[in-house]
């Protein structure tokens, strides 16, 4: 009995650990049933999350150090910037002042934090019919959520495209089975 039970318990532990470490945005979540200001901005964040997930999935140390020119930022520095942008987006949804990201995080930790920040913000905003209550706050300065659309959300989408381009240039192209239009992955 013990010989049978041990492999089953081990398999259960592996499956449980795998499920716990699953990151958001492997695919875009199902769309909302209705259009509201909250569901639209949520969907924009979900699109960003999906693009960032795949632009950063499977990056190597070589990819992280890549930069297209001497003056440009490395992939790793661009990831740091997107993490900061994701915190601005999340903090706006939480209605708190923006604080800079913790330093000393590994790439894996930064990627996870970025995706979780985006998911948290998306979930909060999706459930709101009136997004005018949300503000981007930098200390004493407050900006309407409009600024999130043309500011950190658009900027992070731009940088997700850069990350995809950088990884292609460093010899590690993005997964060819992803479909940005549908937000799905071909099996």
From TrEMBL:
Q: Which domain of life is it from?
A: Bacteria
Question: Would the keyword Signal be found if you checked this record's keyword annotation?
Answer: yes
Q: Which SUPFAM superfamilies match?
A: DinB/YfiT-like putative metalloenzymes
Q: Any signal peptide, and if so, which residues?
A: 1-19
Task: Read off the InterPro entries from this record.
Answer: DinB/YfiT-like
Give the record's keywords alphabetically.
Signal
- Stated name of the protein: DinB family protein
Q: Look up and give the organism this protein is from.
A: Tenacibaculum larymnensis
Q: Which lineage?
A: Bacteria, Pseudomonadati, Bacteroidota, Flavobacteriia, Flavobacteriales
